[in-house]
């Protein structure tokens, strides 16, 4: 077992090795999805802002991912070479995730167990990444740990924000502080505007955070039931909620006057209009059946991870179990609404990412007791061994750059437009078109007056 609690140097070594491992993952296994058309939206959007082209010509996704995704890119932009932004972004995101987990676990367990957990989580993350690579999963399910502009960064931030808020409220209740208010006014403003930015940037992640908060609150066995639902009986809560939603919708409306952002609700209601309930149920069942077949044939590493989740579920922390129980039907419903009735995507696995995240955390926690007798040097050696295996994989950066830089067509398909512009660092600006040769205005900044005339 560990002879003594891990030192600061031990944590530094872990974060260094982990960062090297995750950067290598970004440059090998996850290189293609991290440099796909959807993923390159934010780097190119930011480049237009920085170079003075503005944003008025952009057709944005339904969730524009301004916060915190764009903010992180903005911080990285001056210090990271443009072509390395997606890989560095993924690496930094994992550092922040591990640091957040460290802070959270340190409040509830000892440093030794926290240290073991971090090592095991990184090892399992690399193991399932390699497994997905070997089984040729499409898409690779754990790539969303590293992506921006795919709900994952917003999910991490939303989860951290809600857990921090809940811990402050519990601390307030225990110490009987601020009896006539939720929190001190500066903290109220901090959380209010953080959630406003998250709402207008990524409603999906905002919703996940809200659900997480109330799952933790309502399932808190240390509180009487009347206190668990006390927020719903508080007039201030409903007033604050009303003004919050009003402000968010006004800001969202203002954004739509500046840039083109599709309205998911309008698309959804337009699709469902005139359809009978029996038809909707039939379409839903067919879609979920087809989705399950996609998982079976294209997500073998995901199936193995879910198998571990089922085997170790009873050993997961109580909070972890509760979140999985609640999120499974909720996220499956959101996946159905988005993938079948709104944007018609056959396999939008990213909407189940919170389940994968909590599942991987639970499996890691269940394995921690089995590593008590393992010397910490063994975990470090195993992690280094996995990094060595990753270094044996192909690094497609130069090959990819040559390929996209060599495409000279003025009109290209959606999946080529942003990669060409990215790899040429904006020197080439092709126009995306659909299969009928018509302009394809979906998540693109190509239709600028100076670029298209």
TrEMBL record:
Keyword line: Membrane, Transmembrane, Transmembrane helix
Chain segments annotated as transmembrane: 12-31, 72-105, 117-134, 154-170, 182-200, 206-225, 237-259, 295-316, 323-343, 349-368, 378-395
Keyword Transmembrane: yes
Protein name: Dolichyl-phosphate-mannose--protein mannosyltransferase
Organism from which the protein derives: Leptospira kanakyensis
């Amino acid at each position: 077992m560990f002879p003594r609690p891990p030192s600061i140097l031990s944590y530094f070594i872990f974060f260094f090795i982990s960062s090297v491992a995750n950067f290598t993952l970004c440059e090998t296994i996850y290189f293609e999805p991290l440099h796909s058309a959807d993923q390159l939206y934010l780097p190119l959007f930011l480049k237009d802002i920085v170079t003075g082209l503005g944003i008025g010509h952009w057709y944005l996704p339904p969730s524009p991912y301004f916060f915190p995704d764009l903010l992180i890119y903005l911080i990285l932009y001056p210090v990271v070479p443009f072509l390395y932004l997606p890989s560095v972004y993924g690496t930094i995101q994992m550092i922040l995730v591990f640091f957040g987990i460290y802070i959270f676990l340190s409040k509830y367990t000892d440093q030794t167990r926290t240290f073991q957990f971090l090592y095991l989580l990184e090892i399992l993350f690399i193991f399932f990444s390699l497994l997905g690579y070997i089984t040729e999963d499409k898409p690779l399910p754990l790539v969303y740990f590293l992506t921006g502009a795919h709900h994952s960064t917003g999910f991490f931030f939303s989860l951290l924000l809600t857990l921090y808020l809940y811990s402050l409220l519990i601390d307030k209740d225990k110490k009987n502080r601020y009896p006539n208010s939720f929190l001190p006014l500066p903290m109220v403003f901090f959380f209010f505007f953080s959630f406003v930015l998250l709402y207008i940037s990524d409603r999906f992640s905002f919703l996940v955070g809200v659900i997480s908060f109330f799952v933790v609150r309502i399932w808190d066995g240390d509180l009487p039931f009347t206190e668990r639902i006390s927020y719903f009986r508080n007039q201030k809560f409903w007033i604050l909620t009303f003004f919050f939603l009003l402000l968010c919708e006004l800001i969202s409306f203002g954004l739509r006057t500046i840039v083109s952002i599709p309205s998911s609700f309008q698309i959804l209601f337009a699709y469902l209009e005139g359809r009978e309930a029996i038809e909707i149920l039939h379409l839903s069942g067919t879609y979920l059946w087809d989705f399950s077949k996609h998982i079976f044939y294209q997500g073998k590493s995901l199936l193995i991870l879910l198998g571990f989740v089922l085997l170790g579920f009873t050993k997961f922390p109580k909070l972890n179990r509760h979140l999985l129980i609640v999120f499974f039907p909720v996220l499956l419903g959101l996946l159905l609404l988005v993938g079948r009735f709104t944007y018609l995507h056959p396999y939008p696995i990213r909407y189940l990412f919170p389940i994968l995240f909590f599942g991987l955390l639970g499996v890691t926690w269940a394995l921690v007791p089995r590593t008590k007798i393992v010397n910490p040097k063994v975990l470090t050696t195993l992690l280094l061994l996995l990094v060595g295996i990753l270094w044996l994989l192909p690094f497609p950066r130069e090959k990819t750059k040559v390929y996209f830089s060599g495409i000279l067509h003025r009109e290209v398909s959606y999946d080529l437009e942003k990669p060409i512009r990215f790899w040429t660092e904006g020197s080439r600006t092709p126009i995306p078109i659909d299969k009928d040769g018509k302009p394809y205005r979906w998540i693109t900044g190509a239709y600028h007056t100076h670029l298209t005339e």
